[in-house]
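Researcher: Here's my situation. A collaborator sent me these components and asked whether they could plausibly form a single complex. I don't have experimental data yet, so a predicted model of the whole assembly would be a useful starting point for our discussion.
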Amino acid sequence: MARQQGHSPAAGTPTLRKTFARLGPFVKPILPRLFCGFLCALAAGLVALAIPQVLATLVNDVLHPEGKSSAVWYAVALIGGLGFLEALLVFLRRQFVITPAARLETQLRVRFYAHLQQLPVAFHERWGSGQLLSRSMSDLSLLRRWLAFGALMLVVSTVTVIAGLSLMFSASWVLGAIYLAGAIPITIKAFHFRSNYRAASRLSQDQAGDLATAVEESVHGIRVIKAFGRGRHMYDGFNSQAKQLRDTEVSKAKTLAGFILFVVAIPETTLGLGLAAGLWLTAQGDLSVGALVAYFATAMVLAGPVENMGMLMGMTLTTKTALDRHFEVMDTQNTITSPVSPVTPTQRRGELELRNVAFRFPDTAQDATPTLRCINLLVRPGETMALVGMTGTGKSTLLQLVPRLYDATGGQVLIDGIDVRDRDLIELRQDVAVAFEDTILFSSSIRENVLLGAPEYEKEKLDALLDEAIDTAQASFARTLPESLDTVIGEEGLSLSGGQRQRIALARAIAAKPRVLVLDDPLSALDVRTEEAVTQKLRSTLAGTTTLIVAHRPSTVALADRVALLKDGEINDVGTHSELLGRNEHYRYVIASLEDEESNIISLTGGTEA
Amino acid sequence: MSQHTGVANEDAITLSLEERKRVRARSWKLLAVLASTQKKMLVLTVVLVVISNVARVAFPLLIAWAIDWGLPQVRNGNWAALGITGGAYVLAAITAGSLLGWYILCTAKISQAMLLDLRLRVFRHTQRLSLEFHENYTSGRIISRQTSDLETLRELLDQGISELVSAGVFVAFTLISIFVLDWRSGLVVMIAAVPIWLLFGWYQKRSEVVYRESRVVSARVIGSFVETMTGIRAVKAFRKESINDASYSKVAGEYRDNSIRSINLFGVLQPSLVLIGNLSVAAVLAWGGFRILDGQLGVGVLVALLLATKRVFQPVENIAMFYQSLQSATAALEKVSGLLEEEPTVIEPVKPQPLESVLGKLEFKDAVFGYGDGPVIMDRFDLTIPAGQTIAVVGQTGAGKSTLAKLIARFYDLRSGSLSLDGVRIEHIANNDLRRHVVMVTQEAFLFSGTVAENIALGKPGASIEEIILAARAVGAHEFITALPEGYETDVNKRGGRVSSGQRQLISFARAFLADPAVLILDEATSSLDIPSERAVQRGLQTLLGNRTALIIAHRLSTVQIADRVLVVHDGHIVEDGTPAELISSEGRFAALHKAWRDSLV
């Protein structure tokens, strides 16, 4: 059932150079270390090449049956020294490169996370968290490996190949030219390979991300899956997604294998031609046997780096698409930000006004009816206003405009006469607290969860605040938990029932001590008794706090001074509960089921109730 | 200390000897099981790797042959020799290249097949595990097992086999050639095995701990990432961003330090191997050099010996690389195999009793329930629900109403006593049968990504669109669904972000309607609905319930009116049981609740 989410198909993918150029600012500070690492790698390669040469000369020129034993010691010391040098260079190469590469990876990862936290809720609704996770973990670890190993070795291999080619040309320009001719088909092939492999690696990364999202959903929705016994169905869906990923990976490997085949077979084939040509030249006397041997010795040495270049090109392309995925998210503009010069209200009374507010979800069609059309509503300081309307009329959406979880697409939301978009975002959210209907608690103690948004008081005052919030929300069950208020809850802790979670979330909103409190049907999972107790407490606690509360029941409406009725994206009527009951038919329809139920109950109870 | 099984000790870095042995064995076994389905491909790959290496060894021989035999031939005017030598070389080139390409593909196929196998195993297993497990094991951990741990295994599988085989072949051939040239020098080279062995031992010991830690830390990084992203609304509303940034950069930093540690361990191993190789060359040089002075050894032989010695150590680095990914993958497999070792507490019967047509009679006898080893939640009770009865369960939050529902849905098993459906003990019913006949709609109406129609169809896979629409109509969801941008084909996005919670409940109601079970459990399933919608649902329910057995848990007593019977649960006991009218006229808890509710309606 899960499908590709969020990520748009790579429209106008940036070029290889452009993508890597974006790394510039991050790589710049570690460039000297990377360069040192490169030098060490090159030097280690040279020493490795030199050792056999030195051995040959030592054995041929220095050691002979009539020689002195000191000559032997000299040779051993020389070889031992070179050997030690090689090991040291290999060691240094890693030392230079590893730490900065790992730091860079982590730096980008933390930056990515911070950026995601800033991106608006609308963004997160489009993107599965598994997809984001794969970009934060696998994609960036690819980058680290490429930086610490791939890029370095690609340069070293290229340098080695160029050096080898010039050696070949110096031995015989004809033979050199024959070997170099092999580069033509390889380049053509590389061109195809590049586009195919890039597309395949991008696809596999996206599919892996979607697969992670599917895992996440299968865990978060486990209760529904179990309740309906749809494990098999989910498994089938996951199975086909996982198989798609496998197929992509295999076809990606096929592309790579085809290219490596070419990269190995072509140079060796040109060597076969070179061999024939070399023999002919030698037979003609245009080439010495020594030069012919030198030519092939060089070719043998080059075989490794040439093959590596093929592999490393693949690695570079994979890293490129991983980086594209990374920057795709990083380039997403944050549409909800603090203004350059935020306005701080001179007096904080907590007056909330919605003026001609309209809202349309960002990805809905232009001609579709907006969720909210023209909302005009004034909540006086200290007033509690209930928001009533049918399921899906946009009550929750309206609430989310106040702390700017979404921005209104038309009109203004004003607190104390200041547009919320002119306020500093942190300050605004200090002034506005929310209790959501689907409660989100974090893996920490009850105390930390409740005091999450609380002002920075000293400890005693915080404790008092905590007690007050817990008592108001009727969450004192928390005190009977194993470690009382220090019990860890949330995903990594104790699991609570729906009603319990809702009360903790309510306590959290209360403890934030906001000017404006926004409550989204905060009592829906409570039983009548508890609801009654919460309602009574809330009334006194909320005195002086401007409150906008979504209500579905008369019992919740009872909390409010006035009621606003939402219908078809507009405020249909505002007044007290009894006023609306008296004059508004739609209100009666939405909230007052009394007559209807009364008759039912009477018939049910045989009319014993008066 | 007793042995930990499953995921119990997952975060431990240092293990007792005994435990380490068990955990390692478990990982190897899993790897062996995964590999066992790929035997043929594995053999093919090994053969390809060997032949490909032989073909490559042939290149220098071909050149030597071309110069020794071909050149004189050409000089004598035999031009055909040019074609023969050149052609032979080209043939070898194409063979080597093709074989290489082929085994790269084979390796990928094996690796992907094993990963797919493991991925599906883990998925199936986590789905099979009981709710009790999921309540303690976070989603972040499962995601981390399925992503980062599997990624680690992939690194081993992608390169491991071919690297190990080609390195092994190469070392073996070269070593043999050394012994053939001069067995005494061969022995000198063999001495190098001692420090190499010690070095690997050192590396194994140190890296095992570091890699195990790496798995734990990476799960932590993933866990905190997932928690933030799934709870982003609350993060923003309560300004948790900066706290999160700080704690995330701390775990990300730990992960980085761990990576650096593991790479640095390898950074000691690899140059040390290079050093040992080079010193061995020096040792062979010393040993051979003095024998040259004595005239016991030819110069040419020594050159050959020295070059072979230098070469024999080249692939040792590849072996080290293989060993590194093996260590890392084993650490990951420790975690994955631990998860797979977990047993569901609610066990599917081996020989299920078949259920023909289900009427829906439920019977608890001497039932006692408590979570795990925890305190007793529901103490010894008997309850018979005749087929077709609609029962309302009321009581305070946390009184045990949901527990009753979860027992009937078999999310948990009773500690003692029995629960039967139509006289068959619920533990003896096949899971598929049970789920077809008993369906529960929960408080949290979770929507999966996909369309509205797909979400409803979850109640009955393969349902036609007509059936789906019929179900939606029955619960009063049709109107809002058709008002959505693309009607039934509207994508609900992540977590149903775009539909309101009330609408989500309507969708999950339609799901239950479509499922058409004999026993329906509604656990607070209408809490977010407005009154008209709730009324519509109730009308739908009356037709839906018909002759079904239903257990309705509701805080709103409005739902109770359609019930034949009410159970009042308090402190894990059923304290009142009767028709609504009976209970209202008595002086009990229900009468009081009912009065409070009626007052709340005004």
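Model: Some features of this prediction you could bring to your collaborator: The two ends of chain A are 53 Å apart (CA to CA). Chain A has 22 helices and ten strands.
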